[in-house]
Amino acid sequence: MGDSVNLETVLKIIRKNAVSIILLTVISGLVMALITFFLLTPKFEAETQILVSQPEVSGSVNNQDIETSLQLITTYRDIILNPVILGDVARNLELEQSRSELSEQITVSNEDQSQIITVTVVADSIDEAAGIADEVAGVFQDKVIEIMNVDNVSVLASAFMDAETEPVSPQPVINITLGIVVGLLLGLALAFTRAFFDKSVRSEADVEKHLDIPVIGSIDKFEGWIRAEGKNDETSKG
After folding, report:
1. Which residues contact 126 (CB under 8 A, 6 or more apart)?
2. How many CB atoms lie within 10 A of CB 108?
3. pLDDT digits (tens, 9 = 90+) for 210-219
Protein backbone atom coordinates (compact mmCIF):
# COMPACT_ATOMS: atom_id res chain seq x y z
CA MET A 1 0.00 0.00 0.00
CA GLY A 2 2.86 2.34 0.86
CA ASP A 3 4.54 1.67 -2.47
CA SER A 4 1.38 2.50 -4.40
CA VAL A 5 0.97 5.73 -2.46
CA ASN A 6 4.59 6.69 -3.13
CA LEU A 7 4.22 5.95 -6.83
CA GLU A 8 1.00 7.96 -6.94
CA THR A 9 2.77 10.88 -5.27
CA VAL A 10 5.67 10.69 -7.72
CA LEU A 11 3.34 10.65 -10.71
CA LYS A 12 1.38 13.55 -9.25
CA ILE A 13 4.54 15.63 -8.85
CA ILE A 14 5.61 14.82 -12.42
CA ARG A 15 2.20 15.74 -13.86
CA LYS A 16 2.12 18.95 -11.85
CA ASN A 17 5.53 20.02 -13.14
CA ALA A 18 5.28 18.48 -16.61
CA VAL A 19 5.52 21.82 -18.42
CA SER A 20 8.69 22.93 -16.64
CA ILE A 21 10.28 19.48 -17.03
CA ILE A 22 9.60 19.41 -20.77
CA LEU A 23 10.75 23.01 -21.16
CA LEU A 24 14.08 22.35 -19.41
CA THR A 25 14.58 19.19 -21.48
CA VAL A 26 14.02 21.00 -24.77
CA ILE A 27 16.16 24.00 -23.78
CA SER A 28 19.03 21.75 -22.67
CA GLY A 29 18.90 19.81 -25.92
CA LEU A 30 18.87 23.02 -27.99
CA VAL A 31 21.77 24.52 -26.03
CA MET A 32 23.85 21.38 -26.55
CA ALA A 33 22.99 21.42 -30.27
CA LEU A 34 24.11 25.04 -30.59
CA ILE A 35 27.35 24.29 -28.74
CA THR A 36 28.00 21.23 -30.90
CA PHE A 37 27.40 22.88 -34.27
CA PHE A 38 28.67 26.40 -33.64
CA LEU A 39 31.20 26.41 -30.79
CA LEU A 40 33.04 23.09 -30.85
CA THR A 41 35.87 22.72 -33.37
CA PRO A 42 35.66 19.54 -35.49
CA LYS A 43 38.49 17.09 -34.84
CA PHE A 44 39.90 14.66 -37.40
CA GLU A 45 41.82 11.48 -36.71
CA ALA A 46 44.62 9.92 -38.73
CA GLU A 47 46.84 6.96 -38.00
CA THR A 48 49.98 5.36 -39.35
CA GLN A 49 51.43 1.94 -38.57
CA ILE A 50 55.04 1.11 -37.74
CA LEU A 51 56.44 -2.43 -37.99
CA VAL A 52 59.07 -3.51 -35.48
CA SER A 53 61.20 -6.46 -36.64
CA GLN A 54 64.68 -7.87 -36.20
CA PRO A 55 67.49 -5.97 -37.94
CA GLU A 56 68.86 -9.11 -39.58
CA VAL A 57 67.82 -9.44 -43.19
CA SER A 58 69.03 -13.00 -43.80
CA GLY A 59 68.24 -16.29 -42.17
CA SER A 60 65.04 -17.46 -40.56
CA VAL A 61 63.26 -15.63 -37.76
CA ASN A 62 62.69 -17.78 -34.66
CA ASN A 63 60.42 -17.32 -31.66
CA GLN A 64 63.19 -15.75 -29.60
CA ASP A 65 63.67 -13.04 -32.23
CA ILE A 66 59.97 -12.29 -32.21
CA GLU A 67 59.89 -12.18 -28.39
CA THR A 68 62.80 -9.75 -28.38
CA SER A 69 60.93 -7.51 -30.81
CA LEU A 70 57.82 -7.60 -28.65
CA GLN A 71 59.84 -6.55 -25.62
CA LEU A 72 61.02 -3.50 -27.54
CA ILE A 73 57.46 -2.31 -28.23
CA THR A 74 57.01 -0.66 -24.82
CA THR A 75 60.35 1.11 -25.15
CA TYR A 76 59.53 2.30 -28.65
CA ARG A 77 56.17 3.63 -27.52
CA ASP A 78 57.91 5.80 -24.95
CA ILE A 79 60.49 6.96 -27.47
CA ILE A 80 57.82 8.08 -29.94
CA LEU A 81 56.34 10.45 -27.34
CA ASN A 82 59.77 11.65 -26.22
CA PRO A 83 60.47 15.41 -26.57
CA VAL A 84 63.40 14.55 -28.87
CA ILE A 85 61.02 13.06 -31.44
CA LEU A 86 58.20 15.54 -30.97
CA GLY A 87 60.57 18.50 -31.05
CA ASP A 88 61.82 17.48 -34.50
CA VAL A 89 58.27 16.90 -35.68
CA ALA A 90 57.17 20.37 -34.53
CA ARG A 91 60.18 22.02 -36.18
CA ASN A 92 59.85 20.10 -39.44
CA LEU A 93 56.16 20.93 -39.80
CA GLU A 94 56.50 24.43 -38.27
CA LEU A 95 53.71 23.70 -35.82
CA GLU A 96 52.43 26.30 -33.37
CA GLN A 97 51.82 23.70 -30.66
CA SER A 98 54.31 23.12 -27.88
CA ARG A 99 55.75 19.65 -27.41
CA SER A 100 53.41 18.96 -24.51
CA GLU A 101 50.38 20.05 -26.54
CA LEU A 102 51.55 17.93 -29.45
CA SER A 103 51.96 14.95 -27.14
CA GLU A 104 48.30 15.27 -26.08
CA GLN A 105 47.25 14.94 -29.72
CA ILE A 106 49.11 11.67 -30.20
CA THR A 107 48.18 8.19 -29.00
CA VAL A 108 50.58 5.26 -29.41
CA SER A 109 49.18 1.75 -29.10
CA ASN A 110 49.62 -1.83 -30.23
CA GLU A 111 47.64 -5.04 -30.06
CA ASP A 112 48.73 -7.77 -27.66
CA GLN A 113 51.54 -9.92 -29.08
CA SER A 114 51.71 -7.71 -32.18
CA GLN A 115 54.84 -6.17 -33.65
CA ILE A 116 52.86 -3.31 -35.19
CA ILE A 117 52.73 0.06 -33.44
CA THR A 118 49.82 2.34 -34.33
CA VAL A 119 50.34 6.09 -34.07
CA THR A 120 47.01 7.95 -33.91
CA VAL A 121 46.83 11.74 -34.22
CA VAL A 122 43.83 14.01 -33.60
CA ALA A 123 43.94 17.48 -35.15
CA ASP A 124 41.73 20.32 -36.40
CA SER A 125 42.01 19.32 -40.06
CA ILE A 126 42.48 16.21 -42.18
CA ASP A 127 45.78 17.38 -43.63
CA GLU A 128 47.22 18.35 -40.25
CA ALA A 129 46.31 15.01 -38.64
CA ALA A 130 47.76 12.98 -41.53
CA GLY A 131 50.85 15.18 -41.78
CA ILE A 132 51.69 14.87 -38.09
CA ALA A 133 51.14 11.10 -38.07
CA ASP A 134 53.42 10.54 -41.06
CA GLU A 135 56.08 12.92 -39.72
CA VAL A 136 56.11 11.20 -36.33
CA ALA A 137 56.63 7.84 -38.02
CA GLY A 138 59.38 9.21 -40.26
CA VAL A 139 61.29 11.00 -37.50
CA PHE A 140 61.03 7.97 -35.21
CA GLN A 141 62.32 5.67 -37.94
CA ASP A 142 65.40 7.87 -38.35
CA LYS A 143 66.02 8.61 -34.68
CA VAL A 144 65.65 5.05 -33.41
CA ILE A 145 68.84 4.10 -35.26
CA GLU A 146 70.78 6.68 -33.24
CA ILE A 147 68.99 6.03 -29.94
CA MET A 148 68.84 2.22 -29.95
CA ASN A 149 71.65 1.49 -32.44
CA VAL A 150 69.34 -0.81 -34.39
CA ASP A 151 67.57 -0.58 -37.72
CA ASN A 152 64.48 -2.68 -37.19
CA VAL A 153 61.71 -0.14 -37.78
CA SER A 154 59.78 0.44 -40.99
CA VAL A 155 56.61 2.36 -41.83
CA LEU A 156 53.96 -0.22 -42.66
CA ALA A 157 51.11 2.14 -43.65
CA SER A 158 51.05 5.90 -44.10
CA ALA A 159 48.24 8.11 -42.81
CA PHE A 160 46.39 8.55 -46.09
CA MET A 161 43.00 10.18 -45.61
CA ASP A 162 40.16 10.78 -48.00
CA ALA A 163 38.86 14.35 -48.43
CA GLU A 164 35.40 13.12 -47.37
CA THR A 165 36.64 11.74 -44.05
CA GLU A 166 34.18 12.54 -41.30
CA PRO A 167 35.39 14.21 -38.09
CA VAL A 168 35.64 12.02 -35.01
CA SER A 169 34.29 14.79 -32.81
CA PRO A 170 32.05 16.42 -31.91
CA GLN A 171 29.34 13.75 -32.22
CA PRO A 172 26.01 15.58 -32.62
CA VAL A 173 23.72 12.65 -31.81
CA ILE A 174 25.56 11.74 -28.61
CA ASN A 175 25.94 15.36 -27.50
CA ILE A 176 22.29 16.30 -28.11
CA THR A 177 21.08 13.10 -26.45
CA LEU A 178 23.28 13.89 -23.46
CA GLY A 179 21.84 17.41 -23.34
CA ILE A 180 18.28 16.07 -23.38
CA VAL A 181 19.02 13.58 -20.61
CA VAL A 182 20.69 16.27 -18.47
CA GLY A 183 17.74 18.62 -19.01
CA LEU A 184 15.27 15.89 -18.10
CA LEU A 185 17.15 14.98 -14.93
CA LEU A 186 17.48 18.65 -13.99
CA GLY A 187 13.75 19.20 -14.50
CA LEU A 188 12.87 16.17 -12.37
CA ALA A 189 15.34 17.20 -9.67
CA LEU A 190 13.86 20.72 -9.48
CA ALA A 191 10.32 19.36 -9.41
CA PHE A 192 10.98 16.93 -6.56
CA THR A 193 13.08 19.48 -4.66
CA ARG A 194 10.28 22.02 -4.84
CA ALA A 195 7.74 19.42 -3.74
CA PHE A 196 9.95 18.30 -0.86
CA PHE A 197 10.47 21.79 0.53
CA ASP A 198 6.91 22.96 -0.10
CA LYS A 199 5.29 22.94 3.35
CA SER A 200 2.24 25.03 2.47
CA VAL A 201 -1.18 23.70 3.47
CA ARG A 202 -3.83 23.85 0.77
CA SER A 203 -6.11 20.91 1.55
CA GLU A 204 -7.20 18.44 4.22
CA ALA A 205 -4.63 15.98 2.87
CA ASP A 206 -1.85 18.54 3.44
CA VAL A 207 -2.98 18.97 7.06
CA GLU A 208 -2.75 15.23 7.68
CA LYS A 209 0.59 15.05 5.87
CA HIS A 210 2.41 17.92 7.58
CA LEU A 211 0.72 17.98 11.03
CA ASP A 212 0.08 14.25 11.34
CA ILE A 213 -3.39 14.81 12.81
CA PRO A 214 -6.76 13.68 11.52
CA VAL A 215 -9.15 16.18 9.95
CA ILE A 216 -12.55 16.07 11.64
CA GLY A 217 -14.15 18.90 9.73
CA SER A 218 -13.68 21.79 7.32
CA ILE A 219 -15.30 25.13 6.54
CA ASP A 220 -16.18 25.99 2.97
CA LYS A 221 -15.56 29.44 1.56
CA PHE A 222 -18.56 31.77 1.72
CA GLU A 223 -17.03 34.83 0.11
CA GLY A 224 -19.36 34.80 -2.87
CA TRP A 225 -22.39 34.25 -0.69
CA ILE A 226 -21.41 37.06 1.70
CA ARG A 227 -20.90 39.51 -1.15
CA ALA A 228 -24.27 38.52 -2.62
CA GLU A 229 -26.01 39.04 0.73
CA GLY A 230 -24.37 42.45 1.08
CA LYS A 231 -25.69 43.56 -2.28
CA ASN A 232 -29.18 42.38 -1.42
CA ASP A 233 -29.09 44.41 1.81
CA GLU A 234 -28.01 47.56 -0.03
CA THR A 235 -30.77 47.06 -2.61
CA SER A 236 -33.42 46.67 0.03
CA LYS A 237 -32.25 49.79 1.88
CA GLY A 238 -32.41 51.81 -1.33
Report:
1. 44, 46, 161, 163, 165
2. 18
3. 556 665 656 5
What's the CA gap between 103 and 218, in Å, rounded? 74
pTM greater than 0.70:
no
Q: How far apart are CA 12 and CA 4, in angstroms?
A: 12
Instruction: Report the alpha-carbon distance of residue 161 to residue 169 in Å, rounded.
Output: 16
Distance CA 128, CA 184 (A): 39
pLDDT at 228 over 80: no
What is the rounded distance in angstroms from the CA atom of residue 36 to the CA atom of residue 50? 34
**Per-residue 3-state assignment (H helix, E strand, C coil) for the chain:** CHHHHHHHHHHHHHHHCHHHHHHHHHHHHHHHHHHHHHHCCCEEEEEEEEEECCCCCCCCCCHHHHHHHHHHHHHHHHHHCCHHHHHHHHHHHCCCCCHHHHHHHEEEECCCCCCEEEEEEEECCHHHHHHHHHHHHHHHHHHHHHHHCCCCEEEEECCCCCCCCCCCECCHHHHHHHHHHHHHHHHHHHHHHHHHHCCCCCCHHHHHHHHCCCCCCCCCCCHHHHHHHHHHHHHHHC
Residue 22 has pLDDT above 80, yes or no: yes
The residue type found at 139 is: V
55 prior amide bond cis, ω within 30: no
CB 47 within 8 A of CB 128: no
Q: What domains can you pick out in the chain, each with its CATH number?
A: 1-40+170-198 (no CATH), 44-157 (3.30.70.1130), 201-238 (no CATH)
